[in-house]
Structures are given as C-alpha cells and as structure tokens.
C-alpha cells in the first residue's frame, strides 16, 4: 500500500512542479508580449500568419487553440490595429482568410527578436542536454494524457 501512496505523492508533486514551472515561464513571456500592446492570443495569431502565411479563420482557431467565437474577436482587434486584413477565398467565398498587412509583418519582425531572447533567457536554467530530455519527457507526458482524454470522450 505504501508503494501506491509513494506513486500518488510523486505524481502529485510532478503535477505541482510542472504547473509552477509553466506559470513562471509563461508569466515572463506574457509580460514581454504585453509590453508590445498585445495579448498572448494576438501574438500567437501574428506568429502563425508570419510563419505560415494567410490562413482560413477556422484554421487559426485550431492552431492557436481558441474558439471560433474568440477568433473573430481577436482578428477584429488585430485588424483595427492594421496588423492584418481579411480576404475572401477565391475558391470558396464562404471561407475567409486572415493575412498580415505590410505593417503587421514589419511590426512582428521588430518585436520577435526580443521575444525570442526573452524565451531563451527564461529557459537558460537548463543545459542543452536537459532541455532535450525535458522536450522528450514532456512530449511523452502530453501524448499519454491526450490518449487517456480521447479514451474517456
């Protein structure tokens, strides 16, 4: 019985440490994003459009992990800031794409290098080998959790 309790305690400890580490890392990176007048979702949309090009609004929500109702709100905000525009698909007028404006592309190019440095600085508490191990272990943990969630659905 004590083995089960030890395993439960270890699992709980892992969960708490993981949550605290996530909060610490995201708190710092979020402050950097907010210093540029964006929230994390807006930054995620700009990042997606910068690196992947124009995207259908429906796909943006899937890739940035926000609901379809929220994507409209976020795209509206970014459009008011002249960072992106909506364009109807030439193949299917029901599909609307979002794409960066020239101003949006320039803005992202200006802020991303600093954000990248903040990320690098935030995770520099681990060596290269430790980062590689953490990536593999967290992928394994995430995939296991996803599988269990899918089975329960």
From TrEMBL:
Pfam family, one: MarR
Keywords: DNA-binding, Transcription, Transcription regulation
Domain of life: Bacteria
Protein name (database record): MarR family transcriptional regulator
Keyword DNA-binding attributed: yes
Protein's UniProt keywords contain Ribonucleoprotein: no
HTH marR-type domain segment(s): 11-143
Matches recorded under PANTHER family: HTH-TYPE TRANSCRIPTIONAL REGULATOR MHQR, TRANSCRIPTIONAL REGULATOR, MARR FAMILY
Organism: Paenibacillus lacisoli
């Amino acid at each position: 019985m004590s083995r089960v309790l030890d395993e439960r305690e270890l699992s709980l400890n892992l969960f708490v440490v993981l949550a605290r580490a996530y909060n610490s890392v995201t708190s710092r990176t979020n402050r950097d994003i907010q210093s540029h007048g964006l929230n994390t979702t807006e930054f995620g949309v700009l990042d997606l459009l910068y690196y992947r090009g124009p995207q259908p609004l429906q796909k943006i929500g899937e890739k940035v992990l926000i609901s379809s109702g929220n994507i409209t709100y976020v795209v509206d905000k970014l459009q008011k800031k002249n960072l992106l525009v909506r364009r109807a698909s030439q193949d299917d007028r029901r599909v609307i794409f979002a794409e960066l404006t020239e101003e949006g592309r320039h803005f992202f190019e200006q802020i991303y290098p600093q954000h990248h440095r903040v990320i690098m600085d935030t995770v520099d508490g681990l060596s290269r080998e430790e980062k590689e191990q953490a990536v593999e272990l967290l992928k394994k943990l995430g995939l296991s959790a996803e599988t269990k969630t899918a089975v329960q659905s």
